[in-house]
Write the structure tokens for this entry.
Amino acid sequence: MILIDTSAWLFALKRDFHPLIKERVERLLLTERVAISGMIQLELLGGAKSEKEYDRLSQRLHALYHIEADQSLWDTASKLAFVLKQKGVTVPYADVFISASALKESALLVHADSHFDLIAEHSDLKVESLVFLVSAAHGKI
């Protein structure tokens, strides 16, 4: 199973951004079992620019496997946040929750946000990082 983070979705949805990110996300949607968490849905739909964009994206997201935010997921996220804090790692709780969602489902997290690489260094989170492509597209490398 694959969980595509908000960061990868946003770059894939941009018209004139790095084509490899768009191609990777589209290929995953066609060939893999892709999951969505409530946090990712909230971030994506909450940022929609129009009703039309909201409706189009909502339909796409509702077709994906939904990771339920049950008590065990909240427990996993809380423990992960605690462990990261003990190691001196500070990341947004939304990213911790998304990471816990991937861990709960043993999913590979595809992302374009360096926080997830940091979380993966200090946990069992498996990631496919697109951060390099974003940095290259922005001329930072």
Q: What stands out?
A: The radius of gyration is 15 Å. Residues 18 and 95 are 23 Å apart (CA to CA).
